[in-house]
Amino acid sequence: MLVATILSLGLILRPFTLSLLGVLATSTLHAQHVNFGVKAGLNASTYAGSDVPNPRFRLGPAAGLFVRLPLGQHLALQPELLYEQRGARTTSTQLFLGYDSPGILYRLRRTNRTHYVALPVLTRWHVRRFFALTGPQLSYLLGTWRRTETQVMLLGNTAGSFYDPAYPTSSTSTERGTGYYHRWELGYVVGLGYQVSSRLSAELRYAAGLTNLLQSQRGLTGYEFPQQPRNSTLEAQVSYQLGTL
Fold first, then answer.
1. Digit-coded pLDDT (tens) for 134-175
2. Where do the domains of the chain lie?
3. Residue 54 near residue 90, CB atoms below 8 Å
4. From the candidate CATH numbers 3.20.19.10, 2.40.160.20, 2.60.120.1140, 2.60.40.10, the one assigned to the domain spanning 2-244
5. pLDDT band at residue 39, thresholds of 50, 70 and 90?
6. How many CB atoms lie within 10 A of CB 89?
């Protein structure tokens, strides 16, 4: 299964790879050097969208490779290939009140963790030691993990709160799979950075998805998700130049 997924990903990314190689060849003809290196960082990710219930950040790692293609004295093209862990924590609470029966307080907490391969193609402007980055990003979802915590409480009319043994007071479940998710995501990246030395740099980025995270299920089950979240990520990264081509 893993081998088939990698082969499929390679076939889908083939046009992007060929385009990138073309840009690399053109840049090499017009520039004296092409830099390459590694990078790593930490993501603080959440979900954006008006229907997302109380989204909160969760932390995850990021790591990968970059190639920097000089296009002028203060301009360069910087394609990257990154592994990124994203996700979010959400909490929703609902209160149902009955006329002659106790009310029901229902609380749902979810922690989502998603694993992506990201291909940002960024334009890099630099002046002295400072630089800015911006450009599109194509991401592919490798896998997901979700933990759901449910709490149910029956509220008494006069005696405060109590619980009925027929109702579970709390339960926790976990699931994996990408069935409800879009595998491909189109987004963008903007950022600012500082060149610490000739090889080491640090930067802060914001990356956002332009496509919805979840698929519509109306065609399968007649139900359509009321929430259509999109990824929203703050990223802190360091880059180290390994060499020059």
1. 999 999 999 999 998 888 776 654 444 444 555 557 788 888
2. 2-244
3. yes
4. 2.40.160.20
5. very high
6. 18
